[in-house]
Amino acid sequence: MKLHHENGKPYEDIISYKRVARRLLYFNTTRPGITFVTQQLNQYLSCPTYTHHNVALGVLKYIKSCPGKGLFFPRNSSVHIQGFSDVDWIGCKDIRRSIYGQCFFISTLLFRGEQIKN
Q1: Cβ proximity of 5 and 48 under 8 Å
Q2: CA-wise closest residue to 41 among 91, 4, 94, 95
Q3: I need a labelling partner for 2 at 20 to 30 A (CA). Which of 45, 57, 74, 104 fits?
Q4: pTM of the full predicted structure?
Q5: CA–CA separation, 59 vs 56, rounded Å?
Q6: pLDDT tens across 30-52, in order?
């Protein structure tokens, strides 16, 4: 489904939509498969519709239906995660939209200041 501003009746409770859409951003670290739809849902924070809200709920149902499918990072693991993100607020002059990017590096960290293995 392609999401647009004109996808139906406006959703009245914008605050709850923002809460769900922004919390989905945290799942991107362990669920990289939802990154695209999360980015799409966060484009409509100012004027969501019921279609956008239903898609967000569908993503939550997907996450709940398969809890063991994400990436798992145990506390005592030697895996090291570095994450970087950047936002260009309305930097694209053609469409006047924000551009968001993120990058995560997962590697094994060696002790005592040695190099990181990729």
Answers
A1: no
A2: 4
A3: 104
A4: 0.64
A5: 5
A6: 888 888 889 889 888 888 999 99
- DSSP state, residue 49: B
The chain-wide mean pLDDT, for the chain, equals 78
Rounded CA-CA distance 20/93 in Å is: 29
Which pair of structure tokens corresponds to residue 82? 């570095």
CA distance 69 to 41: 22
Enumerate residues 6+ apart whose C-beta is below 8 A from 18.
Answer: 45
CA distance 77 to 84: 21
d(CA 77, CA 65): 26
Q: Which two tokens stand for residue 76?
A: 């005592």
